[in-house]
Amino acid sequence: MNTGQIRNFAIVAHIDHGKSTLADRMLEQSGAVKKRDMKAQLLDDMDLERERGITIKAHAVTIPHKKDGVDFLLNMIDTPGHVDFNYEVEKSMQACEGAILLVDASQGVEAQTVANAYLAIEADLEVIPVLNKTDLAHARPDEVAEEIENSLGIDATDALRVSAKSGEGVTEVLDSIIDRIPPPTGDSNAPLQALIFDAVYNEYRGVIVYLRVMEGTLNRRDKVLMMGSGKVYEAVEIGTFRPKMTPCEALGPGEVGYFISNIKTLGDLRIGDTLTLQGKPAQGMLPGYAEPKHMVFADFYPTNPGEFEEMREALETLLLSDSSFSYEPVTSDALGFGFRCGFLGLLHMEIIQERLEREHDLDMIQTAPSVTYKIKRKSGEEEWVLSPGALPNPDQYEEILEPIVRVSMLIPAEYVGVMMTIATEHRGVYVRQDYLSTTRVQLVFDIPLAEIMYDFYDKLKSATRGYGTMNYDLQGYFADDLVKLLILVNAKEVDALSSIVHKSRADIRGRTVIKKLRKEIPRHLFEVRLQAAVGSRILARESIAPLRKDVTAKCYGGDISRKRKLLEKQKAGKRKMRQVGNVDIPQKAFLSVLGSDDK
Amino acid sequence: MTFPRTSPPAAPLPRPEPGTALYVHLPFCATKCHYCDFFSVPAEGQDLEGMVESILKEAAQRAPRAPKTLFLGGGTPSLLPANLLQRLLDGLQELTGWRESVEEASAECNPESLDSDKAKALLDLGIPRLSVGVQALDDEVLELFGRVHKGQDGLRALEAARDAGVAQLSADMIYAWPGQTLKRWEDDLGAVLELTTQHLSAYNLTYEEDTRFKRWLDQGRLSKAPEDLELALFEVARELCGAAGLAPYEVSNYSLSGHECKHNINYWQNGTYLGLGPGAVSKVGPVRAGNPRGIASYLKWIDTCGHATQWRDEPDESTRLAEGWWLGLRLAEGLDPAAVRTAAHWQGDPAQDPALPVARELVDLGLLETSGQEAHERFRLTPKGRPVADAIAVQFLRQLGGNQDPKPTPEGPLE
After folding, report:
1. Residues on chain A touching B273 (C-beta within 8 angstroms)
2. Which tops the pLDDT comparison, A378 or A317?
3. CA Rg, chain A, in Å?
4. Measured between alpha carbons, how far is A400 from A394 in angstroms, rounded to an integer?
5. Could you tell me which chain A residue has the CA closest to the CA of B395?
6. Mutation for B interface: A561, A576, A578, most B CBs within 10 A
7. Which chain A residues touch B251 with a CB distance below 8 Å?
8. What is the CA angle B287-B292-B294, rounded to 5?
9. In chain B, whose CA is at the least distance from the CA of A567?
């Protein structure tokens, strides 16, 4: 097809601003999907995505649209909205010439919108502002247009106004995509250069590679070369998304589609790689993307130590369909063999954990997530510390460095004071504030990542009555007065419960953690003593009194099998626990090192 | 509505050897008590005679000859009229010759169906030991329990039995009910001990699954007695019984020397027994098996096959060992590890007995103690271990039966 009849675009939006609904409506109006095939949020395949109402993986779809008697193919690349998945957004942008900036006309501009819109602007995309939900009574489209101009410097006076829910204005959006987004360029006879912007793993078909042809033509049965990895494959099947995968014979410049070969795992593939023909390779590679940045680490241990290999297999399988987390074997004195896993963020971690439990029926103990630290040795060398347990003794290093992120919060003006207090309490350092309109403020702080990892976002949400949003990016690693908080159970240090905290917070943190553990750890036949310490200094102690009365009154012949099963049920209740020494520690206790301190 | 199968789903256990303990479950009560999880149904409208005939038919196929002990349990055996009790006991005599062989024969009775005539009838039929479900002396509590008698009826029934010449009399009492005070328990226990001088069972109220009490507890309509109070009630029972000359020989059982319940001791020693009637359980060799907790399926299966085996439980070797320790430790005299191994049909090397390391750990914690020489070493609960006997049982089950997940077996009522 003539590149003049193709448009490639992404939709940039905050969660809940109606991106998936708009996508659904466009597909419906184009006739690409019959009404009876429509499921709400057609593009979100994974059960988890549909349940949580969020998009995790990027998706692509082709929408046919006729304008002024000419047939166009509009390739939409759907992008995830959560900050954890920024990296997927970046990849998608590279495959587009334009983006729709979709903003809820009552909610206004959110931090995530700003972050993603900047990604689009940096990728040199034509940005079309669209105001959604304008049919709602409390919509304030004029103000929101002003917010767009102030926060992004985009002229939004003529922003399109739609209701994705009713379909009103959707045709105009399709028309303006054709009018305003430049068609792709490229020579169909040039050597092939196609950008791999995503890939998914399908149980039956193996890896499905999402690509955008930049130059040249990809034909079915072509022998192709991945320029980055040097691997060669045969294009067994190629096709487009309409929205179901539809095979075709060739993909030309500007076209977005898929490619299936005998690629077994996502690990064999590098997102951002350039695909070319083995027989007629391109001169150079397209600009690639950065590797995913793991911001959060946590250890997973099988509850039953015998299930280590099952866990390895489950992680391997999961990596087939999500190449953005990492794992490596790790040993803990307290918990034995397990895996340290790296994630893009906390939501990503929860998703991986849930998938392991649901899809692989694994029972596991997960340590509290932590950020990665660096230590500076006396020699001046810097070293990574992937978990608090792995921190060497203080005489082994000069200082500890922690990741600092620049947090940008978009909040109603009246909550500036309270958010300043909260950010300062989280060791935040004020950077600046900008008024986007008379009522909305962008507040910027530098805050240690460890401080915002757990409940900062919840605090922001509750302090701003749900109207605040935030986004962050890494500034770098900086030294601070950090110490390792040890937790001892019956005088034995439990490495999986230790954490790295600021020295000034160690006392209160220690007391809080011990109090929580006291609630989580069940009573035993003996006293369980809990202590928090920094070095040899004990900061807090609590004890759990032993069980004093636990006896079944009656036990006669007829009861024995039944009673045994009841007792075994108690035993089974302990499955979600790990024995450390002879103390049963439930899963929840391992997470108690996180959370807010007592006031 | 489900229809009972025409034949029992499991194979019957072999008939045990002569001398085996015999239990008969008579599943009828005046009403169902709210805390009770034994199998029983209200007697009204039930064919009691038909039930007796079915039990005798089952006995013909399964009962051991010359049992050493006989126990009529339930349900409420005393609820049966004298002529049916006679039909049952004479019938069993024909099949087993129990009247010549037993060292002990007991029947459970409830105050509303025990008067001096009934006591005499039981004595005449060869049942010298009566266990009376007094439970409590407070009318309001008895109503909460769902029992049909008043507090005074319990004492009257004990008196009637004593006056009829019953020389082996036992009372069942329940403590730690909602609102009970230490004083109340002392008074009630004292009153009962005045009338029963041989044997007493004092049960801590437990909230069993699928009972009204459990449901009420979950709904917050009842609240458990605080742990400290439970402990005090437990200790006071030991003191008062001791003062009356009744020694504790099991966690919940007290008796004059020589009046311990032999039939029940056999359970705690993990011995062999055969149970007849709906819901009854038997243990022969290493296998336990049970009849359905349901009248219709029991009657139907006995009619067609002469047995009504609904389920079998064949725990593995080390689980059997754990069971032996759990049960044996309930006895004041404790247990001999070698006897536990024999009862559990444990085949391994005694030096590798996996229960011993668990037991030693508990000795270190002051929960168990040992006595006797190494070759005949016995283990028993210490005063500190006694009130946590269940948590100790879980230790054995957990560390010995570790690789076995509890699997559901066909069990429970079919109707």
Report:
1. 557
2. A378
3. 27
4. 9
5. A571
6. A561
7. 551, 553
8. 165
9. B394
Q: Which of B230, B283, B398 sits opposite A571 (nearest CB)?
A: B398
Can you say how many angstroms the Cα of residue A124 is from the centroid of all Cα atoms in its chain?
24
What is the total residue count of chain A? Answer: 599
Which positions in chain B touch A550 (Cβ < 8 Å)?
387-391
Compute the distance between CA of residue A332 and CA of residue A417 in angstroms, rounded to an integer. 43
CA-CA distance, A241 to A256, in Å (whole number)? 8
Closest-CA distance, A553 to chain B, in angstroms, reads: 5
Among A525, A563, A574, which would you mutate to test the B interface (most chain B Cβ atoms within 10 Å of its Cβ)?
A525
Rounded Cα distance between A404 and A372, Å, is 11
The minimum CA-CA distance between B228 and chain A, rounded to whole Å, is 8
Q: Is the pLDDT of residue A43 over 70?
A: no
* CATH class of the structural domain B21-268: alpha beta
Check B281 against A558: CB less than 8 A apart: yes
What is the interface pTM, i.e. ipTM, of the complex?
Answer: 0.84
**Of A145, A155, A84, A113, whose CA–CA distance to A19 is shortest?**
A113
pLDDT band at B373 (very low <50, low <70, confident <90, very high): confident
Helix (H) or strand (E) holding B299, with range, is: helix B295-305
Per-domain residue ranges of chain B: 21-268, 317-400
Using an 8 Å Cβ cutoff, are B36 and B174 in contact? Answer: no
Give CA–CA dist A187/A208, Å, rounded: 25
The two tokens of residue A359 are 């899809």
CB-based contact, A551 to chain B, within 8 Å: yes
Q: How far apart are CA A141 and CA A131, in angstroms?
A: 7
Dihedral of alpha carbons A351, A354, A356, A358, sign: negative
Residue type for position A454: Y
The residue type found at A36 is R
Q: Provide the β-strand partners of residue A437.
A: none
Helix (H) or strand (E) holding A343: strand A336-343
- Interface membership of A361 toward B (CB under 8 Å): no
Q: Do B392 and A569 touch (CB under 8 A)?
A: no
- What's domain B317-400's architecture? Orthogonal Bundle (1.10)
* Nearest-CA distance B388 → chain A (Å): 4
Chain B residues in contact with A526 (beta carbon < 8 A): 365
Cβ distance of B389 and A568 shorter than 8 Å: no
| B310/B281 Cα distance (integer angstroms) | 10
Range name among A71-85, A256-270, A440-454, B53-67 with the lowest pLDDT average: A71-85
In Å, how far is A564's CA from the nearest CA of chain B? Answer: 8
The Cα angle at residue A45 between residues A41 and A48, in degrees rounded to 5:
95
Counts of helices then strands in chain A (DSSP H, E): 14, 33
Residue with the bigger pLDDT between A52 and A349: it is: A349
φ, ψ for residue B73 (rounded to 5)?
A: -125, -175
Instruction: Pick from A60-64, A224-228, B117-121 the range whose average pLDDT is largest.
Output: B117-121
Is A455 a residue whose pLDDT tops 80?
A: no
Give the CA count within 13 Å in the CB-facing half-sphere of B397.
25
State whether A566 and B365 contact (CB < 8 Å).
no
- Element containing residue A373 per DSSP (H, E): strand A373-376
| A365: nearest Cα among A297, A314, A300, A304 | A300
Cα A206 to Cα A552: distance, rounded to the nearest angstrom? 56
Question: A547-594 pLDDT, tens per residue?
Answer: 988 877 777 877 788 888 887 776 666 556 777 878 988 888 887 777
Cβ distance of A570 and B203 shorter than 8 Å: no
Mutation target to probe the A interface, by most A beta carbons within 10 A, among B318, B368, B388, B395 is B388
